[in-house]
């Protein structure tokens, strides 16, 4: 599975840890920036990841910023993206099971690597339940 990952400066350090975890667990990962903790604008990186997932170049995306909210908003502006803000493993599972999220966003200033790793495990292991959830997800796209 191919994963696109990105962050702003606030998520940079934690993104490096997440990148390593993804690689260790057999995922092919492309870091789409940023590449330092110098101040940057989160929409630039969130859009790159979201567009790469939406156009099928990558299967899933992972984004980090200080609160996780900014990257989530930007990613959800891209047609075909269902980005979810995950702050614990249970939410990550539900993001896949109920919303078929294809981008998972994390609040770097309020997360630790252990929580993110368990959240990613849950997200990748979960399956979209379809049924009533499919009907609801279908209403998201214009």
UniProtKB/TrEMBL annotation:
<feature type="binding site">
    <location>
        <position position="109"/>
    </location>
    <ligand>
        <name>D-ribulose 5-phosphate</name>
    </ligand>
</feature>
<feature type="active site" description="Proton donor">
    <location>
        <position position="98"/>
    </location>
</feature>
<dbReference type="GO" id="GO:0004751">
    <property type="term" value="F:ribose-5-phosphate isomerase activity"/>
</dbReference>
<feature type="active site" description="Proton acceptor">
    <location>
        <position position="65"/>
    </location>
</feature>
<feature type="binding site">
    <location>
        <begin position="8"/>
        <end position="9"/>
    </location>
    <ligand>
        <name>D-ribulose 5-phosphate</name>
    </ligand>
</feature>
<dbReference type="InterPro" id="IPR004785">
    <property type="entry name" value="RpiB"/>
</dbReference>
<comment type="similarity">
    <text>Belongs to the LacAB/RpiB family.</text>
</comment>
<feature type="binding site">
    <location>
        <position position="132"/>
    </location>
    <ligand>
        <name>D-ribulose 5-phosphate</name>
    </ligand>
</feature>
<dbReference type="GO" id="GO:0009052">
    <property type="term" value="P:pentose-phosphate shunt, non-oxidative branch"/>
</dbReference>
<feature type="binding site">
    <location>
        <position position="136"/>
    </location>
    <ligand>
        <name>D-ribulose 5-phosphate</name>
    </ligand>
</feature>
<feature type="binding site">
    <location>
        <begin position="66"/>
        <end position="70"/>
    </location>
    <ligand>
        <name>D-ribulose 5-phosphate</name>
    </ligand>
</feature>
<dbReference type="GO" id="GO:0019316">
    <property type="term" value="P:D-allose catabolic process"/>
</dbReference>
<dbReference type="InterPro" id="IPR003500">
    <property type="entry name" value="RpiB_LacA_LacB"/>
</dbReference>
<keyword id="KW-0413">Isomerase</keyword>
<dbReference type="InterPro" id="IPR036569">
    <property type="entry name" value="RpiB_LacA_LacB_sf"/>
</dbReference>
<dbReference type="Pfam" id="PF02502">
    <property type="entry name" value="LacAB_rpiB"/>
</dbReference>
<protein>
    <submittedName>
        <fullName>Ribose 5-phosphate isomerase B</fullName>
    </submittedName>
</protein>
<feature type="binding site">
    <location>
        <position position="99"/>
    </location>
    <ligand>
        <name>D-ribulose 5-phosphate</name>
    </ligand>
</feature>
């Amino acid at each position: 599975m191919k994963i696109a990952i990105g962050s702003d400066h606030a998520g940079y350090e934690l993104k490096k840890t997440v990148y390593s975890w993804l690689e260790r667990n057999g995922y092919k990962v492309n870091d789409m920036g940023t590449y330092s903790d110098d101040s940057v604008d989160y929409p630039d990186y969130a859009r790159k990841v979201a567009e790469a997932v939406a156009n099928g170049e990558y299967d899933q995306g992972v984004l980090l910023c200080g609160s996780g909210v900014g990257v989530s908003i930007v990613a959800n502006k891209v047609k075909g993206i269902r980005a979810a803000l995950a702050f614990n493993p249970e939410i990550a599972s539900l993001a896949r099971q109920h919303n078929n999220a294809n981008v998972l966003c994390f609040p770097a200033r309020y997360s630790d690597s252990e929580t993110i790793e368990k959240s990613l495990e849950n997200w990748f292991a979960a399956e979209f339940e379809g049924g009533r959830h499919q009907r609801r997800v279908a209403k998201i796209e214009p």
